[in-house]
Amino acid sequence: MEHTIQPPTFPNTNNNNNSTQEEEIIIIKSLEGTDPKDIVQCSRLAFSDYFVNFSQVADDYFISRWRMGMVDYKYSFAAYTKRDGVMVGFVVLGIDGVNAYNCITGVVPEYRGKRLVQCIYQHAIPILAKEKSIEQIQLEVISINEKAVKAYTSVGFHIHRHLQTVKGDIKPIVLEQLQQLQQQLTLDDGATQVIIDNEQIKRLVQVKYGADIDYSVVPDMLYAPQWEGKVGCLKTDSDQVEYRYLQDSKSFLLVKKQLGLISQYRFDSSSDAKILLQSLCIDYCNETNPTPFKCITIDSRDSSSTPTTNELFGLFNLQPSFTQFEMIINLKSYNQ
Ligand SMILES: CC(C)(COP(=O)(O)OP(=O)(O)OC[C@H]1O[C@@H](n2cnc3c(N)ncnc32)[C@H](O)[C@@H]1OP(=O)(O)O)[C@@H](O)C(=O)NCCC(=O)NCCS
């Protein structure tokens, strides 16, 4: 099924040439059968003026991230010019049960401001709701990306959570002092002071990998992870996943080391956080050419403890990077 639309024409701020104001017929249809490389090519144009520079990122990296995001090309959609069939906008969606996730959205600069994202969703939503019984679509958007927030709001998405990304070359806590103290580390947990060294940390932290991880026993998150950190998505690449936990505690880290991603965390005390992050550092810093680490799931409401989760990550050189909105749209009314 495809839709033919004539998007409203607005003066295009990227080009003063009057020809861009001509009315043009746009076709919206599923991406089923499309070579993912064609979507990557359109993404490169759409993201050519983006906050983050993707020009050095390989095609395969995009495609593998979409696979990990559980992308279903049949239920992803694009806009094409009728005149020459060129892809000018796209919405790529991952699907996990009744939930969908907007992995990537883009409109090439010459076609922006014509509500193409809204038009693609107007085509997609009834199909997602009726054929796939999708109840909710979620996405993340960098909070300063006003155009995108406006476009998603016009579709009916609303801001659900504020997320903080922390990023950096993870470093063991107070490395210099550690050396001076012959590898001793002081962890303070309220009134108690525990002196612990790296060997003890290694003994305290249990690590499971890939198929050995029993996700059913992974403790519930204090706050839900971001889509790519969900169990369904982690399982698409399960041999890359590492589960670090403490016996007799619900604290844990779920890490995708190759991507340098802390996909999920739970810290029930600052001592737990320090032990788990230090253990990650001990193993990680032994590796050659380690990837910078990032964690993208810190819910802004998770600042009740002292020190805050942000500060705990900060001790290990993971500093606040950008903030994101998690936006959702509920489709239940379309299912009836
Ligand atoms: C974000 C993006 C997908 C929006 O696409 P779109 O379908 O063109 O969006 P809309 O037509 O709904 O426009 C959204 C807002 O931006 C304005 N705008 C964006 N580009 C414009 C342009 N070239 N000319 C005029 N207005 C423009 C619109 O006026 C509108 O604001 P308004 O509601 O106050 O009028 C597109 O700008 C894009 O691809 N950006 C780069 C990649 C990106 O940021 N992707 C999203 C990552 S989460």
UniProtKB/TrEMBL annotation:
Pfam family membership, one:
Acetyltransf_1
Report the residue ranges that make up the N-acetyltransferase domain in this protein: 26-180
Q: Which InterPro entries match?
A: Acyl_CoA_acyltransferase, GNAT_dom
Molecular functions (GO terms): acyltransferase activity, transferring groups other than amino-acyl groups
Record's protein name: GCN5-related N-acetyltransferase
Q: Which organism is it from?
A: Cavenderia fasciculata
